[in-house]
Amino acid sequence: MAKLVIIIPSDQLQPSGTDGESIAAGFKIFGRLSKPSGRVASTFEFSEAGDALRTDAAFASGQITVPLEPGLYRLVLIVKDIGSGRTGTEGTSVKVAIFEELAANQ
User: What per-residue confidence (pLDDT) applies to 45?
Assistant: First the structure.
């Protein structure tokens, strides 16, 4: 199992009110993990309402646990800001370690 933590800077989310200081309206995330060959290993989707976002921190975050075999993956995220309707994409590599590698690092 791999835990993915997604962090979005709160200044990138549109406030839900017109005063510019209200909390963000929330966001929706779609993610895809694929092997280097291009084969899709997993997809996920979740959303976070504005009232559930932490307003005392500089970041809004969400986490998801995905069953993955050890190895290298390509993660692509599509994020939609519910307040403004804007979308953004981000891609990165993710390495899921085998147990022996984790034990050796401790």
Answer: 87
Residue with tokens 């290993």: 41
Where in the chain are the domains? 2-104
Question: 3 is written with which tokens?
Answer: 């835990």
What is the CB-side half-sphere exposure of residue 6 using CA atoms within 13 A? Answer: 24
How confident is the model at residue 15, as a pLDDT? 59
Which numeric CATH code is attached to 2-104?
2.60.40
Contact 42, 34 (CB under 8 A): no
What residues contact 85, with CB distance under 8 A and at least 6 apart? none
Return d(Cα 47, Cα 81) in angstroms, integer: 10
The residue ranges of the chain whose pLDDT is under 70 are: 10-24, 50-62, 101-106
